[in-house]
């Protein structure tokens, strides 16, 4: 049985993330890192593909759940007529072996608890060989191994591992599941209580670095910042777009993509949110990751990489998984990695500019790369591309892509003028002016009064709401006000925005539909705030924030009819929108201060 996407919470160790449902079941976990094969894959395959449930014997849904304040430690409370108990789930931030710890605490009365562990490596396909050890169990399949230790008796049944026990108030039982290579000896399990204290301390100290208050929105913003941090891969500094693959944009549809990779675009948005709030270390580490990943010819720059900078991300389908609520196919890898997306060059240049604005020391290697990037944009800005939405139809002259080509040149010019780096700024200004003239004449349709999806089109695209956010045009410019109004009228559903209108020329080349795109809805709020419509912006923001789950987590999309989350979860793009939009609404910052000051 599939649980709604919004039923899940996340825990993680800065290498990977586990999804925990309201039933106390972990239904998704990839080890040892985000893009590795899943050992718990019930999320995408239904029963029998791997999970770990700790709950009352009747598998009731939890009475309540919450995160320990300012942490990624999840507490789930179960209650019945005889008593109640709490499950504390967390993954200690680490440098070596991944470790998942579950502590069960008696809260009141007497509770009968059941643990049901089903390990299936390779995305739910491979049943491990299980052997008993002095301290617990060891589960092995090929190169993978998991060691389970607990203070209660563990029993084998139908190729699963069970434990049944009784808890009285104040009693505690712990389970520690540790991953290691099958050729390596099983590492010694962590002390659960000490690991819990250290994990709480780690996250709370990290949150203390935030230099903004955020007023009434403090909790939702902090939860978003923690979520963004959880999506970073600590060994390299890479940032994944989401920790899941193939959660559908339409239930039963085929728009199911693998987001467990590092998009340059998504990462730069994430970095902006973190840098402004004082998290310079994350920015430095991502800068170094980027220099390693993007080294060489800008013509070979990829739009996405693996978490360690891998360039090859082949896409294939997994036939033995039915997909979330039978939404097929389940995909691993992402063919969009081979696309030409002009806008990423602008995002890249903007990221390096933001580093300098934030006082992060520059590197000579970085400027050398930036100059090559700008020279590449000078040569290729007229070329059509697949655009921000990674269409799988013909390339087009997307308006947003051209604007971001302008951003690439604009940021290079600013670096020479503001920070004294050497470059042919006069030539760059001439090219930037030429791009801007093209966008203003070919990207704006006088008949509909809006910047359109691509040159010569009548279709609208919410990505055009980014134009004032990157400093291309002011939010209160008549052309931008008219564009925002047209997008709101034609792409809005229940006050939320779809990415684009695709009813005329089927621009994305895909079958099926999708839900409203939450990041775009936040961009509309940004435009309202920056245009001085603060009350309306706040009302819309408050409505958007009701679409998260009870833990403050948001997916990529939302179905306004079924009132359910859609798409991969939790989604970095959406949580970035929360952080930046709250800041805009509270401070009513100008576009120049937002990204291009």
Automatic annotation (TrEMBL):
Gene3D superfamilies: 1.50.10.10
Membrane-crossing residue ranges in chain numbering: none
Record-linked InterPro entries: 6-hairpin_glycosidase_sf, 6hp_glycosidase-like_sf, GH15-like, Trehalase-like_N
Residue ranges constituting the Trehalase-like N-terminal domain according to the UniProt record: 4-150
CC cofactor: phosphate
Any Gene Ontology biological process: trehalose catabolic process
The protein's annotated pathway: Glycan degradation; trehalose degradation; D-glucose from alpha,alpha-trehalose: step 1/1
Class in the EC hierarchy, top level: hydrolase
Reaction(s) the record says it catalyses: alpha,alpha-trehalose + H2O = alpha-D-glucose + beta-D-glucose
Superkingdom: Bacteria
GO molecular function term, any single one: alpha,alpha-trehalase activity
Family named by the database record: Belongs to the glycosyl hydrolase 15 family.
Protein name as annotated: Trehalase
Source species: Ferrithrix thermotolerans DSM 19514
